[in-house]
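re the bet — no i am not wrong, look at it urself. input seq straight from the record:
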Amino acid sequence: QLMSNKDDSRSPPNEVPWWRQVAPLQWLGSFVFTTLLFVGSLFWGALIVLVGWLPFRQRYGLARGWAGSNLWLAKILCGLDWVVEGRENIPRAGAHITMWKHTSTWETMAQMVVFPPQAWVYKREILWIPLVGWATWLMRGISIDRGAGHRAVNQVLERGRARLAAGMWIL
């Protein structure tokens, strides 16, 4: 396992910060995080759309800023921290395909911070979200119609080859 969650590294093991033991404060931290996640996603999405003329790597840097800021907020407001084990084993040269079992928004953000620029395979409905969808399109991902069966697989193969040829990882 490359990434794992951990508690606040400044606290001794098994000791939970006092504010996380108070249910209303824990709820408030979670609520503030969720609010900032949505507002921040609109902000970063708008920013990426406004600078859509920039080269991909620069736009990706902004997307990585969105991810990093949300991971920081999750640490501060929710106590969610993580470490990367084996980072030295991640190839930096060439394009690669990685496969992940998508279980939350967290790993989407962590992947952006840990790995080189990637093209995500995602459901096309994401593109319908104003600003966020447009920014996602500018990130050169591979949108698919999950109900299309074999045609969706062909979309991934066709677009994936192009992304790999451009030196992008496929996620």
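see?? The chain is about 50% helix and 10% strand. told u. also Strands lie at 3-6, 81-84, 118-119, 121-123, 142-144, 169-170. so pay up
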